[in-house]
Write a structure and sequence with these properties.
Elements: E1 20-29, E2 34-43, E3 48-52, H1 59-65, E4 74-83, E5 86-87, H2 93-99, E6 104-107, H3 111-114, H4 121-130, H5 137-150, H6 157-160, H7 169-181, E7 187-191, H8 199-216, E8 219-223, H9 227-233, E9 236-241, E10 244-250, H10 251-257, H11 261-268, E11 317-320, E12 323-325, H12 330-333, E13 357-366, E14 369-379, E15 384-388, H13 395-403, E16 409-415, E17 418-419, H14 429-434, E18 435-438, H15 452-462, H16 468-481, H17 498-510, E19 516-520, H18 528-545, E20 548-552, H19 556-562, E21 565-570, E22 573-579, H20 580-585, H21 590-598, H22 602-607
Parallel strand pairs: 3-8, 3-9, 6-7, 7-8, 15-20, 15-21, 18-19, 19-20
Antiparallel strand pairs: 1-2, 1-4, 4-5, 9-10, 10-12, 11-12, 13-14, 13-16, 16-17, 21-22
Helix pairs in contact: 7-8, 8-21, 15-16, 15-17, 16-17
């Protein structure tokens, strides 16, 4: 097969065709520049198709198109989108409104912003049913109780009377899933639905998606940057790069014997729980849609490129039944053993003459409720201390107390030998400069009315570091360090993807050269290659500046690659504390073992693939500048 036409797939439902069929989809800007093009795939009833790729690759754009929607400044300009026998592109606005929520539904990335904070959970569930003509109160009450049970939540009336802010992030996301499955749609589009969730909650959400899709024959398009999650939930995977699908096939084949160099580098950049490796990103940047090269868009970053790669866009080549790759060397690449990039690393414990940060008997409160119980930990100079645990365990409250953003606590927190005031406002300017905080949510942490350049440069003026052209030069340099071009300084946050916004937030925190950096789930919105680049950058800053970090995360494989020590929190108390490698290899507490067992693991997925050892991928030359 040498074209984008893909083989017809037999549905999982006996005698039925695909739930959704997409052929030659093209989405362009209003001035006619293609953003995504040549997109073709099918999804059978009950099947989960994962869509992965770097930020800006077009994953969410394709997902939204299945609802007949394009984001501001874009429009669907070509191809067909068939939901069963219904042509979505031929529908008018009224038909699309009836379609959305009934035949096709959407689960967004951020559950907190997708639920109405002023309405009770039960009211919002009832609205979904009533919006599509189900007005029988008794039947709706029964259906709402059933929806809650389907997503493993209480179905009692008291729970339905809660407001979204009274639920954890995982509970909010499961309410979003209940709303999406409420009307038994044929297709559900899930856009990063587990980003930011702890591993235990994520495991529950992934199991819910799999079970609901299979039980009700619902086709699912699962958009994510987390390849380990894809391995846990998806039957097949589509890999996107610069607005095109570059590989499509069964999940186990893509992870073990992928046929595109880009897929190889993505898989190689995934942190491993079984053994720490220094993370290595993909050199260079993905091109913007307006500046895609005439040939293979990945050629400038590819070590296997030849002149033919730059002459034209490669056709899809069939490597096996239902496995295709957009690479002229795909049949050669698929025979290579999957390389792991980065050297094995065992991070030795770090000792310093005086700790960079220390917490002694810190007890935190929300009003009269004690939420942190006698927290004791030490961060050495140049060390990374990871704080892990489930949602509500106290990770973020601990981090915010260190930064002075949460001031209702007792005990002692010291920066070096300086006792810290409880509130950031009561601390000196230099102390505030030395402790910088990167927030989890890239959508809420940037001012939408300021350009990226103004946002990143603001600490330079606040702390009296630089102004004028010197500040502009520092901003451009910092953007390049976090894998963004200097041209991003002229953009606004709404013109950036979620991963790009988080990189802006990281640049803003690093530009003032802090001594302690608090990272609150900072990689949860980043694809694995950019995550690797950020971790590389933070490692360089540690070595160059003696930077110390408190790294709040639910990504245990990432902890294995970056942190010397780990503190495991449960219900506001430290239940295990020690060196990372020893703890993950031999956890002493049931709670820690539970977290590790719930962590999505690519090793488990690939270990199930049978086959003889394959030849090693050849040494890679330096990529083209």
């Amino acid at each position: 097969m040498t074209t984008d036409q893909l083989p017809d797939r037999q549905s999982a439902a006996v005698g039925a065709g695909p739930a959704v069929t997409v052929r030659d989809l093209e989405i362009s800007t209003t001035n006619g520049t293609p953003v995504v093009d040549g997109i073709s795939f099918e999804i059978a009833p009950g099947e989960v198709l994962g869509v992965v790729g770097e930020s800006g690759s077009g994953k969410t754009t394709v997902g939204l198109s299945l609802l007949g929607h394009a984001r501001r400044g874009l429009e669907i300009t070509g191809g067909t989108i068939m939901l069963g026998d219904q042509d979505i592109r031929a529908m008018g606005d009224a038909d699309l409104r009836r379609l959305r929520g009934s035949l096709v539904s959407y689960v967004p990335q951020d559950p907190a912003s997708s639920l109405n904070p002023a309405l009770r959970v039960g009211t919002q569930l009832r609205e979904v049913l009533e919006a599509h003509g189900q007005n029988d109160d008794e039947q709706n009450a029964a259906r709402m109780a059933e929806m809650m049970r389907e997503v493993a939540l209480d179905d009692d009336p008291a729970y339905l009377k809660r407001y979204p802010h009274q639920l954890s992030g995982g509970q909010q996301q499961r309410i979003g899933l209940a709303m999406a499955f409420a009307n038994r749609p044929r297709l559900i589009v899930l856009d990063e639905p587990t980003t930011g969730l702890d591993v235990t909650t994520q495991s529950t959400v992934l199991a819910t998606v799999r079970e609901l899709a299979a039980a009700h024959g619902v086709a699912a398009l699962y958009v994510t940057h987390d390849l380990a999650v894809v391995a846990a939930v998806a039957t097949r995977v589509a890999v996107m790069y610069a607005g095109r699908i570059v590989e499509l096939g069964p999940a186990d084949q893509l992870f073990d014997s992928s046929g595109h160099p880009y897929t190889r580098r993505l898989v190689g950049a995934i942190p491993r729980l079984a053994g720490g490796r220094s993370l290595v990103g993909i050199p260079g940047h993905a091109p913007s849609p307006a500046k895609r090269p005439p040939g293979c868009a990945f050629a400038p970053r590819c070590s296997l490129r030849v002149d033919e790669c730059e002459a034209r866009v490669p056709d899809m080549l069939e490597l096996a039944p239902d496995h295709v790759s957009r690479c002229i060397k795909a049949r050669e690449v698929v025979t290579y053993e999957q390389a792991e990039y980065g050297d094995p690393v065992e991070l030795p414990p770090i000792e310093s003459e005086a700790p960079a940060l220390s917490l002694e008997n810190v007890v935190g409160f929300y009003g009269p409720t004690e939420v942190l119980h006698s927290i004791n930990m030490t961060l050495e100079q140049g060390e990374v201390l990871a704080i892990v645990g489930e949602s509500g365990s106290g990770k973020t409250t601990t981090a915010r107390s260190i930064a002075g953003l949460h001031h209702d606590w007792t005990g002692s927190i010291r920066l070096g030998d300086v006792e810290l005031a409880k509130s950031a406002r009561a601390r000196s300017t230099d102390i505030r400069r030395q402790i910088q905080y990167i927030f989890q949510n890239p959508y809420g942490s940037l001012n939408p009315r300021k350009t990226i350049g103004e946002t990143v440069g603001q600490p330079l003026s606040v702390f009296g570091i630089a102004t004028g052209r010197t500040a502009e030069s520092r901003v451009a340099e910092m953007l390049e360090q976090v894998s963004l071009s200097a041209s991003y300084a002229r953009r606004y946050p709404d013109q950036c993807s979620g991963g790009e916004r988080q990189r802006v937030a990281i640049a803003r925190a690093l530009i003032s050269k802090p001594s302690v950096l608090i990272c609150d789930e900072i990689t949860s919105a980043l694809d694995v290659s950019v995550q690797a680049a950020i971790v590389e950058l933070l490692g360089e800053l540690q070595r160059e500046l003696g930077l110390s970090m408190v790294f709040v995360t639910h990504n245990l494989p990432l902890v294995r690659s970056i942190a010397q020590k780990v503190a495991v929190l449960a219900d506001g108390a430290i239940v295990e504390y020690g060196e990372t490698a020893a703890m993950l290899a031999n956890p002493q507490q049931d709670y820690t073992r539970h977290l590790i067992s719930d962590t999505p693991s690519l090793e488990v997925a690939t270990s199930e693939v049978q086959g003889a050892p394959l030849p090693t991928m050849p040494n890679e030359p330096e990529p083209m500048a």
